[in-house]
Amino acid sequence: MGRGKLRIYLGAAPGVGKTYAMLAEAHRRVERGTDCVVAFVEHHGRARTEVMLHGLEQVPRRELEYRGGTFTELDLDAVLARRPQVALVDELAHTNVPGVRNAKRWQDVEELLAAGIDVISTVNIQHLESLGDVVESITGVRQRETVPDEVVRRADQTELVDMSPQALRRRMAHGNIYQPDKVDAALSNYFRPGNLTALRELALLWVADRADEYLQQYRSEHRVSKIWGSRERIVVGLTGGPEGRTLIRRAARLAEKGAGGEVLAVYIARSDGLTSASPKELALQRTLVEDLGGTFHHVLGDDIPAALLDFARGVNATQIVLGSSRRKTWQYVFGPGVGATVARESGPDLDVHIVTHEEVAKGRGLPVARGARLGRSRSAWGWFVGLVGPVLLTLLLNAVNLGLANDVLLYLALTVAAALLGGLYPALASAAVGSVLLNWFFTPPVNRITIADPRNILALAIFVGVALSVASVVDVAARRTHQAARLRAESEILSFLAGDVLRGETSLETLLERVRETFGMESAALLERESDVAPWTCAGRAGSGPPVDRPEDADVDMPVGDHMALALTGRVLPAEDRRVLAAFAAQAAVVLDRRRLREEADRARALAEGNRIRTALLAAVSHDLRTPLAGIKAAVTSLRSDDVAWSDEDQAELLEGIEAGADRLDHLVGNLLDMSRLQTGTVTPLIREIDVDEVAPMALGGVPEGSAELDIPETLPMVAVDAGLLERALANLVENAVKYSPGDRGVLVTASALADRVEVRIVDRGPGVPDEAKERIFEPFQRYGDAPRGAGVGLGLAVARGFAESMGGTLNAEDTPGGGLTMVLTLRAAGAPAAPSRPTPAERQDAR
To answer: How far apart, in whole angstroms, are the C-alpha atoms of residue 674 and residue 222?
Structure first.
């Protein structure tokens, strides 16, 4: 059983007439004989809407007790048991009362669709998940009932129910929407003209974007080569903070403005540990971006602005979305921040959007000293304090006499400061310089290296010991913190990697691209060979770097077993990165093995399909070919018989039967041979430029005179086709159309130009074909409906599509307005660029 179809009436605000339009459509379908029921419709006390329920079957609702009140909800089980053709379900974003199977009504609708029931529903624009923030900013009301955008975008039909703000306010004032006691408050708040205008614009833009998607789908199906501008790729920089969800929704809205927009959310984990993100918040943001149709990426990078820009340029992004900094004003003394740096260095090809949010300037804390390398700035300050600090302190103490004990403590404090800032080596330098200066200027005898008092020797020794101890502790703590931060970043990356691979969502090329992104390499390739002496071959590759024929030629070589290796070019990786790289390499081998198992399964399916074709061919030969042969033999035997004296009329009738049987045999054998050529991929079209009106009349030779009519304009451009294959394809299509057309209504063959394509339409007024069978009728040995076996072996449409695709065209079935079926044969106009080769019927069956 196929999946049901979803039709949604979309409105800008309550009261525009969505439910009324839905009920009107239900009445139209009932009048046409469709089994349509009201599963759940809320009229909200509106008289005109309530009247529209009359005459429609309503499924009783389910009553539930909740918090001392009685509520009614959609009875999903009752609707499934009733199994109508069409079910009306109002308010798609509604939250169900606790106690029913699903938390949201759109989940109930999904179950109905999965059961093969068509659903008509309604939703307002403010209930779409991605528009929650912008609707709140317009109306001041946060919509708690939302529906994922993907649910609405998957609808087979989306119809906008539009009404101007002035007309809607008049309806409100007349009491047609809310009760009289609520009208004034509604007009003064939510239903203000500005609010309604903004919501209406959102609805119009959303529907316009959907129209663009439908147009792109049509162009793709009809292989139109001239397309609109390049697709927008929007990178969202995430910090793991709560503002991430706002940024993702804003990027999703930006992506929807252009045709085919794509959102890529990226979180950059610094190996020095200067950033920390909540794993739970990152998981929520990943789920959100995937629900909105985007992808989530996790990248390691010490320099966050540079890593973000490298990632954006690597994926050919056109826009970057960042949040305003959460740092307080005084914290900008440590640098301009990621957003300002990215905006400054993005260049003319990348647009940077800085989005405000509720966490702006609320602070995120000072960076804590982490990592074995404390950063260039801190190291520079450490060396400055360790080398220049003792000199400046000596000049100060020469002017002020504080005593040797105090002098030692001040030099010790300076050494500790150098250790805290720069680590071990600046502290050692400070201790060495400080001890020399103490000895020369302040330890008797002064201005000499020697020390007269043994107690002063002990003081200097303690000074050096304390300095070294503090510096060592700082250095060890920094190393441990660096290791912990790096292990955390590695575990996050491996967690995301394992999740993708276990879910089967990652192809080998995608995994290699993730490797390249994570380690900032130019290219990544998986090499393999059959034995120790066999040459290396590339199983998969990502990136734009130079190709690598051997692992030894790469900058990084990670073995995977005995005969496989992951090779990366771009730079030499430090040893600490190879642990994560080894995990990536092992996962790449798993993905490659899974791909090969899938290919083996595809080949097995191809063999099974070949066996099915051969079995069907034998059945066709045993029945469909024997029938005309038996008729011919019976007629010939009768004519040769001496026992009966046949009249001239009888002889003519027998000869006519012989001729008809021979023609039928010729047609069947021709189709069988054509199908075998298509299955083996041996059809080689001879493409040349011809006019359709030269070939079409010859294709009508096999049908009764007057059963088909040609309407091909003389101004039609020439097409680049094989004349013989086009004639055979058209002949099969016309014969099939005549077979199913009523006797009093002929078949129409017409043609028109569309961009760089020419469409030939074969229109009949027969019974038509339901949507779920429109692809199945093009499979070999398929007959639609109750056609007898004597009607043919079911190859005509399969052969026609195969010939069309071998010439770079397409063949699809559409409904004829008013009833019937229209075959649309799309051909490449002369001079238009050739389209990519199409798969053979066997390859297309494997893909399924």
So the answer is: 24
